[in-house]
Amino acid sequence: MKAVLMYGYGSVDQLRYEQAPTPILAASEVLVKLAATSVNPIDWKIRRGDAKAVSTLQFPLIPGRDVAGEISTVAAGGSDFKLGQRVMALSNRTYAEFVAVPSTSLALVPEGLDIEQAGALPLVVSTGAELMERIGPQRGDTVLVTGALGGVGRTAVYVALERGAQVIVGVRARQKQEAQALQASQIVALDSDGEIGALPELDAIADTVGGEVIGKLLPKLKRGSVLGSVLGKPKAAEGKDIRVEAFFAQPNAMRLARMAEAVRSGKLAIPIARKFRLSEAAAAQQLAEVGHVDGKIVLVP
C-alpha cells in the first residue's frame, strides 16, 4: 500500500509518501480502505517534536488519527462488522491507504453523511464531546468555550447547549460575526482585554486554546468550578480553588456515532476548508501549521 511515513522530528520534509507494508490484523481488528483522513494539530505537533520529552517514537511511523472508509477485511474475533460497510474511527496510523482499527473503536457512517466529511470528524468531535462530558455542566450553568469555531470548540458548544447550559463562545475579534451561527448566549473576543474583563462569573471553562488567554480567564471562574482543558493542566490553574479536567480523547464508538449523526442532521457543523491528496500530506500539514485555515483539512487517497 501507499502511505505517508514520518522519518524523524522536524519540518514537513520528514514526511514522505511511499510504499509501506499493509497492516497485518490482530484479533478483533478490521482493515479499513481509506476514503478520507484529516490533519489535526496533534499531527504536526508530534512531527515538530513538541512531545518528544515525554514520549518515545519509533521511526519511521505513519501519522494520523482520523479514518473513514470501507471495511476491506475482518479478522477473527467476533466482530459484527461486514465487508463493504462504511465506517469511521478515532485510531492511529491513518495517513495510509489501509488502516487496521480495533472493531470496538468503529462507528458506522450515518446514511446521508458524506464520507469525506466523516473523515474530518473522529478526533475533534470525540474530544469536544468528552470535554463537555468531563465538565458536566448543569442546566442553566454559564460555560465559556474558547476557540469555539474550531472543530473541538464547535462540538463542545453543541454538547453544552444540549445540556441546557448558558454558553459563551470565545473567538478572535475578527471571528465574532461568523460565531453568531453557533447560537450561543454571548460572544466574547478573546483578543480583547476589555471584553474578557466584562465577562460574568463562570461555572466552567472549556479550553481549547491555552496560552496567555487562559490566565486572563481564570479569575472569572467561581470558586469550586471547573476548567476543562484539551491542552494539559495550565500553570495558571495551580493553587486555584477549581477542579481541572485535563485529558486526551480516547476512542469511543458510541460517542462518535452520536456526534456524526448530529453532523448529518445539520445540528452540528464541522466545516472543511481544504482537500489534499494523501500524497500532498506535507503541503497540507504546512498549511495547517501556519494556522490561517478556518476549517478542517482533509486528505483523500
Topology:
Elements lengths: L1 E5 L8 E5 L9 E11 L1 H8 L17 E9 L11 E5 L7 E5 L4 E2 L6 H5 L2 H14 L6 E5 L4 H12 L3 E6 L4 H4 L6 E4 L3 H5 L4 E6 L4 H6 L3 E9 L13 E4 L6 H12 L7 E6 L3 H10 L5 E5 L1
Parallel strand pairs: 8-9, 8-11, 9-10, 11-12, 12-13, 14-15
Antiparallel strand pairs: 1-2, 3-4, 3-6, 3-15, 4-5, 5-7
Reported CATH architecture of the largest domain: Alpha-Beta Complex
- Low-pLDDT stretches are none
Q: Could you tell me how far the N terminus lies from the C terminus, measured between alpha carbons in angstroms? A: 11 Å
User: Going by CATH, what is the homologous superfamily of the largest domain?
Assistant: Medium-chain alcohol dehydrogenases, catalytic domain
What radius of gyration results from the CA coordinates? 19 Å
Number of strands: 15
Mean pLDDT: 95
Mind telling me the CATH class of the largest domain?
A: Alpha Beta
Q: What's the domain count? A: 2
| Fraction of helical residues | 25-40%
Beta-strand level of the residues, as a percent range? 25-35%
| Order of helix and strand elements from N to C terminus | EEEHEEEEHHEHEHEHEHEEHEHE
